[in-house]
Every structure is written in C-alpha cells, then in structure tokens.
Design brief:
The complex is a heterodimer.
Chain A lengths: L4 E4 L3 H10 L3 E4 L5 H7 L6 E4 L8 E3 L5 E4 L4 H6 L1 H6 L1 H8 L4 H4 L4 H5 L51 H7 L3 E5 L5 E5 L22 E7 L7 E7 L10 E9 L5 E9 L6 E2 L1 H7 L6 H11 L11 H22 L1
Parallel strand pairs in A: 1-3, 2-3
Antiparallel strand pairs in A: 4-5, 5-8, 6-7, 6-8, 9-10, 10-11, 11-12
Helix pairs in contact in A: 5-8, 9-10, 10-11
Chain B lengths: L7 H4 L7 E8 L2 E8 L4 H8 L18 E4 L2 E4 L12 E3 L1 H8 L6 H8 L9 H16 L22 H7 L10 H12 L18
Parallel strand pairs in B: 1-5
Antiparallel strand pairs in B: 1-2, 3-4, 3-5
Helix pairs in contact in B: 4-7
The chains are: A alpha+beta, B alpha+beta.
Keywords (chain A): Oxidoreductase
Pfam families (chain A): CO_deh_flav_C, FAD_binding_5
Protein name (chain A): Xanthine dehydrogenase family protein subunit M
Chain lengths: ~325, ~210
C-alpha cells in the first residue's frame, strides 16, 4: 500500500475543499470496500478525508411518508429502523441480505452506493481491466464471468454492480442528495446516478470531483403498495446475488397492476430498473404467463456470456415468483 | 493530535504527513501511539499494543477472525485504519472478561467452554466479539434476513433460534466446523435454552 495522508473533516466545506484541491484525495466513510481495495492496490489514494464526523447520520421520516436517510447511516441501523422495516421492507430486506453483520455495522448508505464491482479481474492488479486501467482490455469476457452482468454491459466491461441496497433503492425511486464542492445542493435520481460502461467503464457515476453524497431520499411508496426483495445466491447467507429482485407492486381491486416497479441485482452493469417489464405489465393482470413474458422481454437486449447466460432464465423465474407472491399476499 | 502540519490545508497534498500521533481507547484505557496511516486497527492491536487475542485470518473482511467491538458494535478490525478509530471505544477479547463482572469470564466465554464452541480456537475471539454484537442487536429488536416478521423484529435475544444465530453469525467462519457448539453457546446466553441442558452434556471431552 502506498503511504497516504489522513485528515478528519470537521465540516462539509473543509472536506470538499480538501478533496477537490488535493491530488488523489478521496472521502473515507466506513471504508469496508475502500480499505480492502487499497490493500489490493486497486485504489491508491494520496489522502483520505475522513467524513465520519459530518452530520449526515440520521434517518428522518417525513409526514408525507417519505424518508431522508443520511449518507453516513450504516446498513445495520438503517435495516433496524422501525419506520424502514414497516414502510420500506424491501430496503430492509435488501440490506439484511447483503454482506455480514460486522460489515453492515460500518458500511454506510453513501458508501454502499459507491462500492466497486467484485469482478476478480478488477481486484487483481496483475490482470488487464478497462475499469481499473482504461484501455488495457477486459479479462472477464474470455475468463471468469459467471458472477458478472448481462444487462448494460459493453465489449469493454461486463462487470456487475454488487449492491443489494441500491437495487431496492432503484425500485423505490430513490433520489441521491449531493453537496457540490462550492456548497450548493444537487439531487440526482438513483436511476440516473450510475453510468453504463460503454467505452469508459472507469467512469461509474455522475459524481464530479469533490461531490459529497449527503443522503438518500425515498419518496412515499405508491398507496397500498406491497414490496419485497428476493435474492438468489450460491449459499444461503453472506454471498453476492446471482439474481435479485426488488419489487414494488400496487394493484386495483380487480387484481390489475396499477403500478409495478422492478429493480434487478446480479444481472446489471448498474442496479437495474426493469422498465420494459414494467411497461408490459402496468395495467394488466399479472398472470403467470404474462409475468414470464414481461420478464423475458426485459432481457431482449441482454448480452449473455457462456458462464452467466443461466442468469436470464433464473431472473425470469425470480421476477415471476416475486410479483406472484406479492400480488397473492395483497389479495389475502 | 494528528500528525499533519497545521498549514496542511493551505499547502496541498504534499503537506499531509503519512503518520499521526493519536490515542486509541482500548478496553477502557487510552493507549498513545505514533503510527503510519496504513496500519489497520487489527495490526495496531496485535503488533503495537500486544493484544494478540484478536486474530488475523483473511485480512479482507471475509472471515470475521478480527472482529472487535467499536462503541459496542461488532466490526472487522482489518478493514479499519487505526488512525480512523481514535476517539472510539474499542473492546477486544482481552476486555470481554471484565464486561459482565470484574475478574470473571463473561457468560459467553463460559458458554463457549461449556458447549465446546471451538476446536483450534483461532476464530473464537472474533466469534465471541461478534456474538456480543448479535446479542446487542437483538436486544434492540433488530431483525435479520431470516426473521419471520420484519416489522415486528425480535422481541428479545431469547427469541433467537438456531437459524437466527446462524444467519447473524454468518460473517464468522470456523475452519474446524465447531458451529454446533458455537450456536449452542450463543443460544444459551441469549436465554433461548432457558437454563436447559447442563453444561457437562455439551462437553465433548477428549475428542478434539
């Protein structure tokens, strides 16, 4: 690991100025991913600006049913929050299905959004990787890619986004709150926060240098909506998703889908919002056949590779089961 | 307390020192240190404070052997830079014995002995610190991935069944496979056994 400076930020402006004005400076929050990447040599910051003392650590429930989650709220506390469990269970489920107990106590909401892919080549500095070192090539296409993405990928990168939390946030229409370097506030919809890899896979989000995530806002869920997070993985606990589905479903009295939102994990270059499937299902009866057709249509643009093509069939099954169970639960 | 020169903010990155003078509060005592920023909390505890109870397994946050408590929460100490832990209350396995009563093993430590919750013992300090975190989380009613009713959570640590403990402890690996004893030990302390099986029945004797 390269030597680095360390500063504790006492206020947001000082933190932003330090990061914007110093070469190789990055924010440090929980560090569960950043410290590991530094150990691996994947990331070599010259200065860590510790932001854990900044005042972004509360969960504020609003009268309208929305909530503002501070960027520094750790996953354990967010998943334990009674209001989140009661009204945004898909988010609590997603958090509790990710990482381990002692990672969730530290990993923050803002940091979770910015965690990097677990593609083995990204994490191995001896191998070519366009995301880690632009224009060196992608080792995964011809190598190990079973765990990687099929949606939104390019010839340059097939890495998947590893977050469970962000998949739930995608389905919940979350809004990321940012603080620009000069102090102005900016909001970005989560579904516009991540960039697709294209030919610049090293650029992952719309963040500008010095931008600081201050929180994540959840609008009130649709009236009468049921929601869930369903995750399929190689082992029952403490594993990344092969496929996951965050589903938010509201039905009319006759069972028609008034609103449906689907976030997909394990399959996308970013936390994937399944707009095509939603379009095909909105206003329709969620029959098994229609659910399967809509789920499959979402993958019409997929770029499966030999080891991860199975994810398409798996995702169709998981999407179908997730929505079927939610609709069934609502009817009870 | 930090090592950067006072004018660091004005002169840019080259002014930032690579080491700092600071204190870590460990098991109730302030321990002054001068450390390179690259030193993790795990290495600071083991190599600089001689607290070798905390163990280094994978060093990448995957095995849980390095688990300590920071402000009462379980944390992988291998993924925390020591300099970032200043001002926090750190408890290592060496400080666990005093938590419940002075000079006494913590009930969880006794339960691990009674239920044979280890073989080689390497993962045990992390298992015990993690289990302390589990009990604290359950006392707050926090649910896990396997909790039936997410909104209701758990009423008390005593409601944790074996599935709950396995899920909540999944960040602590035991290469020896002592999981049945580990789960039994935690269940007992959580109150799930309600004073059930006598300690001796859980001891495997000389079979290690």
């Amino acid at each position: 690991m390269k030597p680095f400076g360390y500063e504790r930020a006492t206020d947001p402006q000082a933190a932003a100025t330090l990061v914007a004005d110093s070469t190789g400076a990055v924010y440090l929050a929980g560090g569960t991913n950043l410290v590991d990447l530094m150990k691996l040599g994947v990331t070599e910051p010259a200065l860590l600006v510790d932001i854990t003392g900044l005042p972004y650590d509360s969960v504020e429930h609003r009268p309208d049913g929305g909530v503002l989650i501070g960027a520094l709220v750790p996953g354990s506390r967010l998943a334990g929050d009674p209001g989140i469990r009661e009204r945004f269970p898909a988010l609590a489920e997603a958090l509790l299905s990710g990482a381990s107990g002692q990672l969730r106590t530290v990993a923050t909401t803002g940091g979770n959004l910015l965690q990097r892919t677990r593609c083995v080549y990204f994490q191995d500095v001896t191998k070519p990787c366009n995301k880690r070192r632009p224009e060196t090539g992608c080792s995964a296409v011809q190598g190990l890619h079973r765990d990687l993405a099929v949606l939104g990928t390019s010839d340059f990168c097939v890495a998947g986004h590893p977050s469970d939390m962000a998949v739930a946030l995608a389905a919940l229409d979350a809004v990321v709150h940012l603080r620009r370097v000069k102090g102005s506030a900016r909001t970005v919809p989560l579904n516009g926060f991540y960039l697709l890899p294209g030919d610049t896979p090293h650029r992952e989000t719309v963040l500008q240098p010095g931008d600081l995530i201050t929180g994540v806002e959840l609008p009130p869920p649709p009236e009468g909506a049921a929601m869930s997070y369903r995750k399929v993985r190689d082992r029952w606990s403490y594993a990344f998703a092969l496929v996951s589905v965050a589903a938010v479903v509201a039905t009319e009295a006759d069972g028609t889908l008034r609103e449906i939102r689907l976030g997909l994990g394990g399959v996308g270059a970013r936390p994937w919002r399944a707009r095509e499937a939603e379009r095909l299902l909105t206003g329709r009866q969620p029959t098994e056949e229609r659910l399967r057709e809509a789920a499959r249509a979402e993958f019409a643009s997929a770029r499966p590779l030999p080891q991860n093509a199975f994810k398409i069939d798996l995702a169709v099954d998981v999407i179908t089961a997730a929505v079927r169970d939610l609709v069934g639960g609502q009817r009870r | 307390m930090r090592g950067a020169r006072p004018d660091a903010r004005l002169t840019g990155v080259t002014a930032h020192a690579f080491h700092s003078d600071f204190a870590l509060r460990v098991n109730g005592a302030d321990r002054p240190l001068t450390l390179d920023h690259r030193v993790t909390l795990l290495d600071a505890l083991r190599e600089h404070l001689a607290l070798t109870g905390v163990k280094k397994g994978c060093d990448h946050g995957q095995c849980g052997a390095c688990t300590v408590l920071i402000d009462g929460e379980r944390v992988n100490s291998c993924l925390v830079f020591a300099v970032a832990a200043q001002g926090r209350d750190i408890t290592t396995i060496e400080g666990v014995a005093g938590l419940a009563a002075p000079e006494e093993l913590h009930p969880l430590q006794r339960a691990f002995l009674e239920h044979d919750g280890f073989q080689c013992g390497y993962c045990t300090p992390g298992q015990i610190c993690s289990a302390l975190g589990v009990l604290a989380e359950a006392a707050r009613g926090w649910p896990s991935h396997v909790t039936e009713d997410l909104a209701a959570g758990v009423g008390a640590p005593g409601e944790l069944d074996a599935d709950e403990i396995r899920e909540r402890m999944s960040g602590n690996l035991c290469r020896c496979g002592a999981y049945p004893g580990i789960v039994a030990a935690i269940r007992e302390v959580a109150g799930a056994d309600g004073g059930g099986a006598p300690a001796t029945t859980g001891v495997a004797g000389g079979t290690r």
